[in-house]
Specification:
By secondary structure, this protein is an all-alpha fold. Helices cover 73% and strands 0% of the residues. The longest helix is centred in the C-terminal third of the chain and has 40 residues, at 942-981. Keywords: Nucleus, Transport.
Length: 1048
């Protein structure tokens, strides 16, 4: 039943009660709202609450109504089969209502209204909420606002700030061909028309709405959506650009008027007075000052965006040199107020870094065709690149590069007082903030990123400079110093500078001498203040891993283990990460590390208990997983690891990403235990069961909590919609669990009853997605090999369901991974399996008889493999294939698929076997040959028409079999050798698989004898027709047949 205006009071009371601190009041209100949200008219009621004039003071209620409105858009705006959508009439009403209330005075409500419009535009633009061309009457001039009316100018300038945001969004898309379409002129035309008569507040709200809407539309990636966005750009960019120019000119003129009140001499005399005035201005007008900072930062971001999107245009001599010079000056010689303006400095560094690493600005040394009269686009680009290269050389002479390097290390790398306080008070957070934060978010990581690019571009110039700074810092602060002095902080900064550019710096600095002469000595000082240096030593030992020679590895391993036992958590976590790098290194020396394993594991177990943050636990678990995967002496620690895994899994309830990391560690653990893995089944199997049962409460909670943990991070990073994000989480969880399941089966000495019971879950997983088909196919193969006939008896229906799900619903690659498993099933159970999977076999017949595959190798391979399975069934269960090909249901399927059949289906398969012999493997060719030899025994006159081809194929297979004999004998010898060496031990999965392969009856039966005997039967059945067909054979072909059958 639809909600109406009479329900408005009820909705309002429920919204009010849902914010109550009393749970007995809040819970029923939330439940009632949850029931109301799917009813027609709910969003209209919410809209009335949001825009009601008499509720202007009830900001919290209006905000909550906005949130419910936004959630309803996500859930019910789009038409779905599984939920009731909002009606078209209600949508039209809401769209019009939103545009009528753009002039919202409350900033928070205005922001949410802009978000609501953007969410609707994402779904309805352009079909339901189209684009109208901006009228020419829309002006860009605005009345000047008195400069002293600070509160008004803040709003005025906020408009300019959002214009900048709009421009940034318009620039974020590359240029596409503009396709003008007849679109309904509603959304953008209404906004444009309102701008003509708008006051400052309305202009601010309109541009806020434009910004949110453009940002939302820019994340759509389909070609048609990008073309739509290009059309918006063509209409809005020029207008926004002109408006922004006008506003900025007004602001600059006002500042110019203020500056002209002082003469140049007066400015010099009253410099201190102006500085004091500037400081007092900041305190007296913080809102306006905050706007200036945000506007300057956004301007720099716009420049960075333009440089990234249009590097050649940005490389013009009137643009690049002044921008680069300005940024370099602000970095190396900042004014006092700039030093506290971190975000602006960060953008200056981002700009310099982007220019330095821009591949379009690298000198192009390729030549040009002689006497080429036409200058191509590529030649123009090369000319610009060479010109920009010269400009950069003049902007960055050697002395300026060295000065920039010194400033970055000595000023921006040095820890501040707040950094030191964080290091001592909250070392865990300090570690993650320093090493895992996005480099564009904090000043020090940004400076480090700029330094790395600068060093890579000028390593020969800066190598000796960095070494000299390092030597100076170590000499000025010996290892005995324990106080936090400027010298110690400079040494920390110099150590960091040496760590970040290890590859290039190794030409100027011997790690062995540095380690023995300085780094190892730093660890001898256990004073608490030395955690600053110890943390950086741990970083160096990890970064320089590729430069550490064999004679130093043991000492480095011992140092990292010692750092793993440090008193400061940031040092321990840094050592943990560096140990991972060493263990994963291709030159890792297990011999030098193995006796350190006990203390390493114990330290990791203690560290997991010490740390509190999620990222820390994941980092330690990763080290344990890496140790298990790379060090083979794991068996002595099996009991401790089992206890550890059980404890961590219980404590990790509700932390999906941590559980994913634990699944990876468990998989490595099972692989290393091998056939001793049943010792951990009491812990492993309950975890595995909870992960593969997609309907269990455990996996549902795991998915829900994983989304809550990572939603904001991933959605903001990849612009993923909620549904796509949910699918990503499910895919990751399913993939990790399936890999653990596969490893458990592969290393099981025998089929465990609890493992046997898991198989039906595979069908449920595949019903949802084929994302991990290859792993699922491997699991099914493991069950066949390990479980044998008992497995088939217990799960026959599930086997049939899985194969029926796959065949016909996956692409050629998926089929090629699945068909070998069907072949093994038929080989192992020739009597039981074919009737069980009749539906799948009918699909294989359709694959064989449908379409041409002359130019598609993958389809030809699929058809050959499917035909080989059907040929095997004919050889091993002849009567069943004859029955299957004669079933009316198959004929009906072929008719529905428009596959013409002019004769017996079985004879059509004979044509496929004859045609695909060249696409088949040696084993498949042998199967085709045996199947064709059986065809000779049929009482069908059409067989005589194909006799020549059948005998030619059989002859080629028999004569060609000798070429494969040597390989098979060699493989057989290897198998025998494996069996001999493995006597008394549990056979491996691969050995079992080879055993099945070499016990294949197809390999045991003689094709030569089969053809000889069946040829005699054929002669008896067909008499003169047979003799006539034989006489038509080419003499050379008949001679080869006699040779193959050893006939005199």
């Amino acid at each position: 039943m639809a909600l109406s205006a009479s329900d408005l009071g009820t909705i309002y009371s429920f919204l009010t009660n849902s914010m109550s601190g009393d749970e007995s009041v809040r819970k029923p209100a939330e439940a009632a709202l949850s029931q109301f949200e799917s009813r027609p008219g709910f969003c209209c009621c919410l809209m009335e609450v949001i825009t009601a004039a008499d509720l202007a003071s009830q900001v919290d209620v209006r905000l909550l109504a906005s949130v419910y409105f936004k959630n309803s858009i996500n859930r019910y705006w789009r038409n779905r089969r599984d939920s009731a959508a909002i009606s078209s009439e209600e949508k039209n009403h809401l769209r019009q209502k939103l545009l009528l209330h753009l002039r919202e005075e409350n900033d928070k409500i205005a922001g949410l209204l802009a978000v609501l419009i953007s969410k609707i535009a994402r779904l309805d633009y352009p079909r339901e909420w189209g684009f109208g061309v901006l009228g020419r009457g829309v002006g860009v001039e605005q009345d000047a606002v008195p400069f002293k009316q600070w509160e008004n100018i803040v709003y005025c300038n906020s408009v300019s700030l959002f214009v900048i945001l709009v421009i940034t969004n318009l620039l974020s898309m590359k240029a596409y061909e503009i396709i003008l379409m007849n679109l309904r002129p509603e959304l953008f035309s209404v906004l444009a028309n309102k701008l003509q008569l708008a006051d400052v507040l309305t202009s601010h709200r309109i541009f806020l709405t434009l910004f949110r809407t453009l940002k939302e539309l820019s994340t759509k990636r389909l070609t048609v959506d990008q073309r739509n966005y290009a059309e918006i750009t063509s209409h809005l960019f020029g207008y926004s650009w002109g408006l922004w120019q006008s506003d900025v000119q007004t602001i600059l003129n006002s500042f110019s008027t203020l500056a002209q009140s002082y003469t140049s001499n007066a400015l010099e005399q009253r410099h201190d007075e102006l500085y004091l005035m500037n400081s007092s201005f900041q305190k007296g007008h913080p809102k306006f000052w905050d706007f200036i900072k945000r506007a300057c930062t956004k301007l720099m971001k716009v420049l960075v965006t333009i440089q990234g999107r249009h590097p050649y245009s940005f490389g013009d001599k009137s643009v690049l040199p002044p921008v680069m010079d300005f940024c370099l000056n602000k970095i190396t010689d900042p004014d006092p107020y700039i030093l506290s303006f971190e975000q602006f400095l960060i953008q200056c560094m981002v700009m310099v870094k982007s220019v330095l690493e821009c591949k379009e600005y690298k000198l192009n040394l390729t030549g040009r065709v002689m006497d080429e009269s036409v200058i191509t686009v590529e030649q123009m680009k090369k000319n610009i690149s060479n010109a920009v290269g010269g400009v950069l050389t003049s902007l960055l002479p050697s002395d300026r590069i060295i000065h920039l390097c010194n400033v970055l290390i000595r000023r921006y790398f040095v820890l501040t007082a707040s950094d030191l306080e964080e290091l001592y008070q909250n070392p865990e957070s300090f570690h993650h903030e320093q090493d895992m934060v996005q480099w564009t978010e904090k000043l020090r990581p940004c400076a480090e990123a700029l330094y790395i690019v600068l060093f890579e571009n000028h390593s020969q110039l800066l190598g000796p400079v960095v070494v000299s700074i390092l030597q100076e810092a170590m000499n000025a602060c010996p290892t005995s110093v324990t106080e936090i002095t400027p010298g110690l902080l400079l040494k920390d900064a110099a150590f960091g500078a040496a760590a970040y550019v290890y590859y290039e710096l190794s030409n100027y600095l011997s790690f062995k001498d540095w380690f023995n002469g300085a780094l190892s000595l730093e660890l001898s000082n256990d004073h608490p203040n030395m955690c600053v240096i110890h943390r950086k030593v741990a970083l160096i030992l990890g970064q320089w891993v590729s430069e550490i020679k064999a004679d130093t590895k043991r000492a480095v391993y011992c140092s990292l283990i010692r750092l793993l036992q440090d008193k400061n958590l940031s040092v321990k976590l840094a050592a943990c990460r560096s140990l991972c790098l060493h263990v994963e290194d291709a030159n890792f020396s297990e011999q030098d590390f193995v006796d350190l394993l006990p203390i390493c594991f114990d330290s990791c177990f203690k560290l997991v208990e010490e740390v509190q943050e999620f990222d820390s636990k994941v980092q330690v678990l990763n080290l344990i997983s890496v140790l298990i995967g790379h060090v083979h002496e794991i068996i002595p620690f099996a009991n401790k690891l089992v206890q550890f895994f059980q404890k961590v899994w219980e404590e990790a309830s509700g932390e999906s990403l941590l559980q994913i990391q634990l699944l990876i560690a468990l998989r490595n653990f099972v692989v290393e235990l091998g056939y001793q893995s049943p010792t951990c089944y009491n812990v492993l199997l309950p975890i595995l069961r909870g992960g593969i049962d997609i309907n269990s409460p455990d996996i549902l909670n795991l998915l829900e909590d994983g989304m809550l943990v990572s939603f904001l991070c991933l959605v903001s990073m990849y612009c993923l919609p909620y549904a796509a994000f949910s699918k990503l989480i499910i895919a990751n969880l399913t993939g990790m669990t399936l890999q653990l399941w596969e490893a458990t089966l592969s290393h099981a000495p025998a089929m465990e009853p609890r493992l046997q019971a898991f198989f039906p879950c595979l069908a449920e997983i595949l019903e949802r997605s084929f994302d991990h088909l290859q792993v699922a196919v491997n699991i099914m193969e493991d069950y066949i090999i390990l479980g044998g006939i008992e497995f088939l008896r217990m799960h026959a229906s599930s086997v049939a369901k899985v194969l029926d799900l796959i065949v016909g619903n996956v692409n050629d690659r998926g089929l090629l991974s699945t068909l070998p498993v069907i072949d093994i099933l038929v080989q192992c159970f020739p009597a039981e399996v074919p009737p069980l999977i009749s539906s799948t076999l009918q699909k294989l017949i359709m694959i064989c008889l449908s379409g041409r595959d002359d130019f598609e190798p993958s389809k030809a391979a699929v058809k050959a493999s499917a035909a080989a399975i059907l040929a095997r069934i004919l050889v091993m269960n002849t009567n069943y294939l004859a029955q299957l090909t004669a079933e009316p249901s198959l004929s009906l399927l072929l008719q529905q698929a428009d596959i013409p059949i002019e004769e017996n289906v079985l004879l059509c398969l004979v044509d496929i076997w004859l045609d695909k012999i060249d696409n088949a493997s040696s084993d498949q060719k042998r199967t085709f040959g045996l199947a064709l030899s059986i065809i000779l025994t049929l009482r069908l006159p059409q067989v005589m028409d194909k006799l020549d081809q059948i005998l030619s194929v059989c002859t080629s297979v028999i004569l060609g079999a000798n070429d494969d004999l040597t390989e098979e004998e060699s493989s057989g010898d290897n198998m025998s050798s494996s069996k001999f060496h493995g006597e008394g031990t549990i056979p491996s999965r691969e050995y079992r698989k080879r055993q099945i392969k070499f016990s294949d009856p197809i390999k045991q039966w003689s094709l030569e004898n089969s053809v000889r005997e069946n040829l005699q039967t054929c002669a008896t059945l067909h008499g003169e027709s047979f003799n006539s067909a034989i006489s038509r054979m080419h003499p050379a072909a008949f001679a080869q047949l006699k040779q193959a059958l050893k006939m005199q």
